[in-house]
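Session log. Operator J.P. requested a structure for one protein chain; no other inputs attached. Running the standard single-chain path with token output.
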Amino acid sequence: GTTLSREPNNISCKNSFQCNGLVNKRVVGIKAADKGVVMTTKSKGKTVSTNLSRNGRRTIKSIRAATVNSHYRPDLTDAAIRKASAILRSQKSKNVAKRRSRKSKN
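Structure written below.
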């Protein structure tokens, strides 16, 4: 089986060197915020958190720009987008279908 990990900034929660958020110089972490997601990266040894709280397409575009387009851990892009999409999907309110009452015939 797969060994899982709970360390911060571990995108896929797998216990592997590639996904490890503690030992790598460059890190991509995604976690839930009140509205939207928080993307965490490392810059000059410090962790930098960015709040992405607009719409889903803008969030995915920002994650892709921060990873692939700036050559910062492009290998973690797909996992970061999947995690952010799952978080955004869970934050959506579910629309409950209202029962329509028919007018009675008189």
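Operator note: Helices lie at 56-67, 77-91.
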